[in-house]
C-alpha cells in the first residue's frame, strides 16, 4: 500500500501542479498514535512546487487519493501532514493476505551480501555475560538481515594467541602440569579460565613481595618471575618452538570444546571461524606496500605508523619495530581478504563501544590504502552489560559465567513453572524442554529488548517475570493462543483458510490487525538500524494488545459462529507473528506452558 500511495502522490503532483517528481521524495509513515489515521504523508516537500499553504496541499492530495483508492475511508490534515484512514474491508483483506502468504521474511530487489563478525572470544577464559550480549546481538542482527532479504555470512574471529594466552599456559606448567579438564571434572574453557585467574593471583603476590623488598611497583610488574616466564613463552611461540606450540594447541582445543557447548546452548552458529593465529600476519605485506606508497612512515626504531592528524585523529602504529603485527595490522589484512573472497557489500563488526576509535582508524587507513569499499565497514558498537552489583573482572574471576547463567535461568524457569502448576500433564522430558525455552527466552529477550548502544544492567529475577516486559510473557501469550486452537479442534472447529471481508469487527480487533500488519515495516526498520530491540518491543506490544483483547472478548464462547471463526483466525495470526518475531531474536516459543 505504501508503494501504491507513493505512486499516486507522484501522479497527483504532476496532474495538480504540472511537475514531475521522484517517488523518493514522497514520505509515507505510520500515523502517530495521538492522531487519527493509519498512514501519514508529509506534504512539505511539495509546498514550493504547488505554491500553496501546506494545509491546502494536504487537502488537494487527500481528495485525489480518496478518489483513486476505494480503501481510503477518510483523511484529515494536521498542518503539513496528511493522515489517511483505511476502511475495515481493507484491513480484513490484509489479514487474509498475511495469513495466506506470511513467512516472516521480505524479498528485496537489491539485496546485499553482508558479513557479520561477532563473538570473538579469547581462549584464556570461558564465555561470560558480556560475551552473551555480543553473541545474542550478532546472532539476532544476522537473523534480521537475512529475514529482510539480505545474504548473510556469519563469522567468528577467535583471539587464540598473545600474552594473555601464554599466561594461562604458564599457570598450567606452574600449578597443574599433568592436569586436564577431564581429571578436574570441568569444561575445558572453565579449566583454562581458572588457570588464568591463578596466574593473576600469583603475579599480584610476586609484585607485592618485590615492592616490599624495596623495588618500585613499575619495576616489580616487569620483573615478577611469572610474568617474565609468560613473556618468554610468547617469544618461543612466535619463534615456532614445538613444545610450546604443542601445549598451546592442547589447551586451545580444550577451550574450543567448551565454547562449542556454550554456543550450542545459546543456539549460536557461524558460517566460518577464523583464528587470530592464522590471520595476525595477514596485513603485514599490505602495510609494507603502503609504506612504499607513502601511506605510512617509518620511525627511527623501525616501527611503521599512519599519520592521521590531518583527519583529526592521532598517529597510529601499524607494525612493530620487530616486524610483528598488531590488532590493527590483522584487521587490515582480514578485511581485505574477506572483501576479496566474498565480494561483500557490507561488513559489520559487532564489538563493544570501547573500540569505536579502533574502527574509525581502520576505515580511514583502508581508505588511504585505496580500497573503495572502506566505507562499507560498519562498527556495530554496543554498551557493556553489568550486574546489579557492578562490573565484572575476568582476571580476578569476578564474572558471571555464561554456562552458570544459562543453568540458573533454566532452573528459575522450572521453579516458576512448578509454582504456576501449568506443566503437570507433560512428560518430564517435555517439561525440561519447556523450562529450557523459557529460561533462554528470558535471558535473550531481556538483553535484546535494550537498545544495543546503551549500557545495561542484567537482572536474572526480573527477566523471568511472566507478567512483565519479558520473554516469558510473550511465550505464554503464544502458548495461550495455541491452547485455544487445540480446544477449538476438540470442538471440531478449525482455523478457517480465510475470513469474509464483510466481517464486523470491534475496535480492539481492528487495532490487532493493524499491529499484525506493521511487522514487515518493523522488520525493515530493524534491519536498517541494526536494532533487535525493535523486534522485541513489537512482539511485546502485540502480545500485550492480544491479552487485553482476550480479557474482554471470548473466542470459543462467542455466540455467533461467524464471529467465533473470525476471532480464531485472528488469534492464530497473532501467534504466528509472535513466533516469527521471537525467532528473529533466537527465541523459541512453546506450544504449551
Top-tier CATH class of the domain at 402-583: Mainly Alpha
- Rg, Cα atoms, Å: 29 Å
Q: How many individual helices?
A: 23
Stretches where pLDDT is under 50 for at least 5 consecutive residues are 392-397
Proportion of residues in extended strands = 5-15%
CATH topology of the domain at 402-583: Isoleucyl-tRNA Synthetase, Domain 1
Q: What is the share of helical residues? A: 55-70%
Shape verdict: flat
Terminal CA distance reads 38 Å
CATH architectural name of the domain at 402-583:
Orthogonal Bundle
Strand order of the largest sheet: 7-6-5-11-12
- By DSSP, the count of extended strands is 14
The CATH homologous superfamily of the domain at 402-583? Isoleucyl-tRNA Synthetase, Domain 1
Mean pLDDT: 93
For the largest beta-sheet, the strand count, sense and barrel status come to:
5 strands, parallel
What class, by secondary structure content?
alpha/beta
Amino acid at each position: 500500500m505504501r508503494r501504491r500511495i507513493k505512486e499516486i502522490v507522484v501522479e497527483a503532483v504532476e496532474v495538480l501542479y504540472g511537475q514531475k517528481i521522484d517517488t523518493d521524495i514522497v514520505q509515507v509513515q505510520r500515523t502517530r498514535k495521538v492522531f487519527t489515521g493509519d498512514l501519514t504523508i508529509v506534504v512539505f516537500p511539495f509546498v514550493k512546487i504547488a505554491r500553496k499553504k501546506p494545509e491546502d496541499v494536504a487537502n488537494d492530495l487527500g481528495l485525489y487519493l480518496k478518489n483513486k483508492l476505494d480503501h481510503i475511508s477518510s483523511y484529515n490534515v494536521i498542518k503539513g501532514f496528511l493522515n489517511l484512514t483505511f476502511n475495515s474491508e481493507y484491513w480484513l483483506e490484509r489479514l487474509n493476505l498475511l495469513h495466506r502468504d506470511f513467512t516472516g521474511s521480505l524479498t528485496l530487489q537489491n539485496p546485499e551480501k553482508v558479513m557479520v563478525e561477532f563473538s570473538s572470544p579469547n581462549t584464556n577464559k570461558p564465555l561470560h555475560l558480556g560475551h552473551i550480549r555480543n553473541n545474542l546481538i550478532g546472532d539476532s542482527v544476522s537473523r534480521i538481515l537475512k529475514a529482510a532479504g539480505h545474504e548473510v555470512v556469519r563469522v567468528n574471529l577467535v583471539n587464540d594467541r598473545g600474552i594473555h594466552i601464554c599466561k594461562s599456559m604458564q599457570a598450567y606448567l606452574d600449578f597443574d602440569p599433568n592436569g586436564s579438564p577431564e581429571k578436574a571434572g570441568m569444561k575445558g574453557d572453565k579449566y583454562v579460565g581458572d588457570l588464568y585467574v591463578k596466574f593473576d593471583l600469583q603475579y599480584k603476590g610476586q609484585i607485592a613481595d618485590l615492592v616490599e623488598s624495596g623495588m618500585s611497583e613499575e619495576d616489580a610488574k616487569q620483573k615478577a618471575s611469572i610474568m617474565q616466564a609468560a613473556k618468554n613463552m610468547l617469544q618461543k611461540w612466535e619463534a615456532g618452538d614445538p613444545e610450546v606450540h604443542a601445549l598451546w594447541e592442547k589447551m586451545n582445543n580444550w577451550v574450543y570444546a567448551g565454547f562449542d557447548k556454550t554456543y550450542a546452548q545459546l543456539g549460536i552458529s557461524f558460517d566460518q571461524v577464523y583464528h587470530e593465529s592464522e590471520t595476525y600476519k595477514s596485513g603485514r605485506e599490505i602495510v609494507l606496500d603502503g609504506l612504499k606508497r607513502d601511506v605510512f612512515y617509518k620511525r627511527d626504531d623501525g616501527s611503521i605508523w599512519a599519520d592521521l592528524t590531518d583527519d583529526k585523529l592521532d598517529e597510529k602504529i601499524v607494525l612493530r619495530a620487530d616486524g610483528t603485527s598488531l590488532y590493527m595490522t590483522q584487521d587490515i589484512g582480514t578485511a581485505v581478504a574477506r572483501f576479496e573472497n566474498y565480494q561483500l557489500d557490507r561488513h559489520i563488526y559487532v564489538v563493544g563501544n570501547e573500540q569505536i576509535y579502533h574502527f574509525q582508524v581502520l576505515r580511514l587507513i583502508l581508505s588511504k590504502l585505496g580500497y573503495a569499499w572502506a566505507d562499507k565497514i560498519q562498527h556495530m558498537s554496543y554498551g557493556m552489560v553489568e550486574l546489579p552489583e557492578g562490573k565484572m573482572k575476568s582476571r580476578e574471576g569476578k564474572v558471571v559465567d555464561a554456562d552458570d547463567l544459562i543453568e540458573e535461568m533454566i532452573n528459575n524457569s522450572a521453579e516458576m513453572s512448578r509454582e504456576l502448576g501449568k506443566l503437570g500433564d507433560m512428560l518430564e522430558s517435555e517439561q525440561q524442554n519447556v523450562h529450557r525455552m523459557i529460561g533462554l527466552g528470558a535471558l535473550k529477550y531481556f538483553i535484546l529488548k535494550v537498545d544495543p548502544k546503551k549500557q545495561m544492567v542484567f537482572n536474572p529475577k526480573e527477566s523471568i517475570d511472566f507478567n512483565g516486559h519479558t520473554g516469558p510473557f510473550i511465550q505464554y501469550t503464544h502458548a495461550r493462543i495455541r491452547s485455544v486452537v487445540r480446544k477449538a479442534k476438540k470442538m471440531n472447529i478449525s482455523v478457517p483458510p480465510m475470513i469474509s471481508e464483510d466481517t464486523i469487527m470491534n475496535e480492539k480487533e481492528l487495532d490487532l490487525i493493524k499491529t499484525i500488519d506493521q511487522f514487515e515495516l518493523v522488520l525493515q526498520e530493524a534491519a536498517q538500524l541494526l536494532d533487535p530491540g525493535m523486534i522485541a518491543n513489537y512482539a511485546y506490544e502485540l502480545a500485550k494488545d492480544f491479552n487485553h483483547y482476550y480479557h474482554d472478548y471470548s473466542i470459543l464462547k462467542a455466540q455467533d459462529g461467524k464471529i467465533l471463526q473470525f476471532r480464531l483466525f485472528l488469534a492464530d495470526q497473532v501467534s504466528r507473528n509472535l513466533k516469527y518475531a521471537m525467532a528473529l531474536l533466537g527465541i523459541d516459543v512453546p506450544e504449551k506452558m
